[in-house]
Amino acid sequence: MHVLPNPELYMALVHFPVINKNGETIASAVTNLDLHDMARSCRTYGVRGLFVVTPLEDQKRLVERISGHWTAGLGARHNPDRKEAFSLIRLSHDLEEAVLAVEKIHGQQPIVVVTTAKFSENAISHEALREILAGGQPCLLVFGTAWGLAESLLLSADKVLEPVRGTASYNHLSVRSAAAILLDRLVGHGLEGR
Protein backbone atom coordinates (compact mmCIF):
# COMPACT_ATOMS: atom_id res chain seq x y z
CA MET A 1 0.00 0.00 0.00
CA HIS A 2 1.50 3.29 -1.04
CA VAL A 3 0.96 6.73 0.45
CA LEU A 4 -0.83 9.08 -1.92
CA PRO A 5 1.33 12.03 -2.93
CA ASN A 6 -0.78 15.20 -2.95
CA PRO A 7 -4.19 13.74 -3.81
CA GLU A 8 -6.57 16.12 -5.60
CA LEU A 9 -9.04 15.74 -2.75
CA TYR A 10 -11.59 18.32 -1.62
CA MET A 11 -14.25 18.01 1.03
CA ALA A 12 -17.71 19.52 1.42
CA LEU A 13 -19.59 19.89 4.69
CA VAL A 14 -23.25 20.20 3.69
CA HIS A 15 -25.83 21.99 5.84
CA PHE A 16 -28.58 21.88 3.21
CA PRO A 17 -30.20 19.71 2.05
CA VAL A 18 -29.83 17.38 5.04
CA ILE A 19 -32.39 15.45 7.06
CA ASN A 20 -33.51 15.57 10.66
CA LYS A 21 -34.24 12.55 12.86
CA ASN A 22 -37.74 12.33 11.35
CA GLY A 23 -36.35 12.14 7.82
CA GLU A 24 -37.53 15.64 6.88
CA THR A 25 -35.31 17.83 4.70
CA ILE A 26 -33.91 20.76 6.66
CA ALA A 27 -31.07 23.27 6.77
CA SER A 28 -28.82 22.70 9.78
CA ALA A 29 -26.79 25.25 11.69
CA VAL A 30 -23.06 25.70 11.21
CA THR A 31 -21.09 24.76 14.33
CA ASN A 32 -17.82 26.31 15.39
CA LEU A 33 -16.44 22.93 16.45
CA ASP A 34 -17.05 21.35 13.02
CA LEU A 35 -15.19 24.19 11.30
CA HIS A 36 -12.19 23.97 13.62
CA ASP A 37 -11.84 20.20 13.67
CA MET A 38 -12.55 19.55 10.00
CA ALA A 39 -10.25 22.35 8.82
CA ARG A 40 -7.45 20.97 10.99
CA SER A 41 -8.02 17.42 9.69
CA CYS A 42 -8.08 18.70 6.11
CA ARG A 43 -4.78 20.53 6.58
CA THR A 44 -3.18 17.51 8.28
CA TYR A 45 -4.09 15.19 5.39
CA GLY A 46 -3.38 17.56 2.50
CA VAL A 47 -6.97 18.20 1.45
CA ARG A 48 -7.06 21.05 -1.10
CA GLY A 49 -10.16 22.81 0.22
CA LEU A 50 -13.10 22.46 2.59
CA PHE A 51 -16.39 23.77 1.19
CA VAL A 52 -18.95 24.77 3.81
CA VAL A 53 -22.28 24.48 2.02
CA THR A 54 -25.23 26.56 3.21
CA PRO A 55 -27.76 28.80 1.46
CA LEU A 56 -28.57 30.67 4.70
CA GLU A 57 -27.12 34.17 4.77
CA ASP A 58 -26.83 34.34 8.56
CA GLN A 59 -24.89 31.06 8.56
CA LYS A 60 -22.60 32.33 5.80
CA ARG A 61 -21.88 35.43 7.88
CA LEU A 62 -21.10 33.20 10.88
CA VAL A 63 -18.59 31.17 8.83
CA GLU A 64 -17.01 34.38 7.53
CA ARG A 65 -16.74 35.82 11.05
CA ILE A 66 -15.17 32.67 12.51
CA SER A 67 -12.83 32.18 9.55
CA GLY A 68 -11.90 35.85 9.50
CA HIS A 69 -10.87 35.75 13.13
CA TRP A 70 -8.45 32.89 12.43
CA THR A 71 -7.18 34.01 9.01
CA ALA A 72 -6.94 37.80 9.37
CA GLY A 73 -7.84 38.76 12.93
CA LEU A 74 -6.25 38.38 16.33
CA GLY A 75 -6.49 34.59 16.07
CA ALA A 76 -4.23 34.60 12.99
CA ARG A 77 -1.44 36.31 14.93
CA HIS A 78 -2.02 34.24 18.04
CA ASN A 79 -2.17 30.83 16.32
CA PRO A 80 -0.56 30.60 12.84
CA ASP A 81 -1.33 26.86 12.66
CA ARG A 82 -5.04 27.55 12.96
CA LYS A 83 -4.71 30.27 10.30
CA GLU A 84 -3.21 27.69 7.95
CA ALA A 85 -6.10 25.29 8.56
CA PHE A 86 -8.84 27.91 8.25
CA SER A 87 -7.38 29.17 4.97
CA LEU A 88 -8.82 25.99 3.39
CA ILE A 89 -12.43 26.95 4.13
CA ARG A 90 -14.57 28.16 1.23
CA LEU A 91 -18.25 29.05 1.33
CA SER A 92 -20.68 27.57 -1.19
CA HIS A 93 -24.37 28.29 -1.63
CA ASP A 94 -25.01 24.69 -2.71
CA LEU A 95 -23.09 21.56 -3.66
CA GLU A 96 -23.25 22.39 -7.36
CA GLU A 97 -21.31 25.60 -6.69
CA ALA A 98 -18.60 23.58 -4.90
CA VAL A 99 -18.39 21.13 -7.82
CA LEU A 100 -18.03 24.02 -10.28
CA ALA A 101 -15.28 25.60 -8.15
CA VAL A 102 -13.25 22.37 -8.22
CA GLU A 103 -13.89 21.99 -11.95
CA LYS A 104 -12.62 25.52 -12.55
CA ILE A 105 -9.37 24.73 -10.71
CA HIS A 106 -8.68 21.45 -12.51
CA GLY A 107 -10.37 21.86 -15.86
CA GLN A 108 -12.42 18.74 -15.25
CA GLN A 109 -15.38 17.83 -13.11
CA PRO A 110 -14.49 16.09 -9.86
CA ILE A 111 -15.83 12.70 -8.90
CA VAL A 112 -18.49 13.44 -6.29
CA VAL A 113 -18.44 10.86 -3.50
CA VAL A 114 -21.05 11.09 -0.75
CA THR A 115 -20.76 9.65 2.74
CA THR A 116 -23.49 8.10 4.83
CA ALA A 117 -23.78 6.08 8.03
CA LYS A 118 -26.28 3.77 6.31
CA PHE A 119 -25.36 0.61 4.45
CA SER A 120 -25.80 0.80 0.68
CA GLU A 121 -25.40 -2.17 -1.67
CA ASN A 122 -23.77 -0.02 -4.35
CA ALA A 123 -21.29 1.63 -1.96
CA ILE A 124 -17.61 1.55 -2.82
CA SER A 125 -15.01 0.52 -0.28
CA HIS A 126 -12.48 2.84 1.30
CA GLU A 127 -9.75 0.96 -0.56
CA ALA A 128 -11.54 1.46 -3.91
CA LEU A 129 -11.73 5.21 -3.32
CA ARG A 130 -8.08 5.24 -2.26
CA GLU A 131 -7.22 3.74 -5.65
CA ILE A 132 -9.36 6.32 -7.47
CA LEU A 133 -7.50 9.09 -5.61
CA ALA A 134 -4.19 7.50 -6.59
CA GLY A 135 -5.20 7.96 -10.23
CA GLY A 136 -5.02 11.73 -9.81
CA GLN A 137 -8.58 12.69 -10.76
CA PRO A 138 -10.05 15.43 -8.55
CA CYS A 139 -12.54 14.18 -5.99
CA LEU A 140 -15.09 15.99 -3.82
CA LEU A 141 -15.87 13.98 -0.68
CA VAL A 142 -19.23 15.11 0.71
CA PHE A 143 -20.33 14.95 4.35
CA GLY A 144 -23.75 15.75 5.74
CA THR A 145 -24.60 17.42 9.01
CA ALA A 146 -27.70 16.80 11.20
CA TRP A 147 -28.85 13.21 10.46
CA GLY A 148 -27.13 13.01 7.08
CA LEU A 149 -27.44 14.08 3.48
CA ALA A 150 -30.84 14.33 1.84
CA GLU A 151 -31.78 11.53 -0.54
CA SER A 152 -31.52 13.88 -3.53
CA LEU A 153 -27.77 14.36 -2.89
CA LEU A 154 -27.19 10.66 -2.30
CA LEU A 155 -28.85 9.83 -5.61
CA SER A 156 -27.09 12.54 -7.62
CA ALA A 157 -23.55 11.58 -6.57
CA ASP A 158 -21.12 9.63 -8.71
CA LYS A 159 -20.31 7.26 -5.86
CA VAL A 160 -21.47 6.41 -2.34
CA LEU A 161 -18.72 5.53 0.14
CA GLU A 162 -19.19 2.65 2.55
CA PRO A 163 -19.80 3.86 6.11
CA VAL A 164 -17.27 3.87 8.92
CA ARG A 165 -18.00 0.89 11.15
CA GLY A 166 -16.80 0.45 14.69
CA THR A 167 -16.84 -2.70 16.77
CA ALA A 168 -20.17 -1.99 18.50
CA SER A 169 -23.68 -1.86 17.07
CA TYR A 170 -23.81 1.84 17.98
CA ASN A 171 -23.19 3.92 14.83
CA HIS A 172 -23.62 7.64 15.37
CA LEU A 173 -20.24 9.34 14.98
CA SER A 174 -19.99 13.11 14.80
CA VAL A 175 -19.31 14.33 11.27
CA ARG A 176 -15.89 15.65 12.31
CA SER A 177 -14.91 12.26 13.78
CA ALA A 178 -16.09 10.35 10.72
CA ALA A 179 -14.22 12.78 8.46
CA ALA A 180 -10.96 12.32 10.38
CA ILE A 181 -11.25 8.52 10.29
CA LEU A 182 -12.00 8.51 6.56
CA LEU A 183 -9.14 10.86 5.75
CA ASP A 184 -6.73 8.56 7.53
CA ARG A 185 -8.07 5.54 5.67
CA LEU A 186 -8.06 7.27 2.29
CA VAL A 187 -4.83 9.24 2.24
CA GLY A 188 -3.03 8.51 5.50
CA HIS A 189 0.03 6.45 6.28
CA GLY A 190 -1.96 4.16 8.60
CA LEU A 191 -2.74 1.52 5.97
CA GLU A 192 0.82 1.19 4.74
CA GLY A 193 2.12 -2.35 4.88
CA ARG A 194 -1.25 -4.03 5.40
TrEMBL record:
The keyword Transferase applies. SUPFAM superfamilies: alpha/beta knot. GO terms for biological process: methylation. Gene3D superfamilies: 3.40.1280.10. Keywords: Methyltransferase, Transferase. It comes from Desulfobotulus pelophilus. This is RNA methyltransferase. It comes from the Bacteria. GO terms for molecular function: methyltransferase activity. Residues 9-188 form the tRNA (guanine-N(1)-)-methyltransferase C-terminal domain.
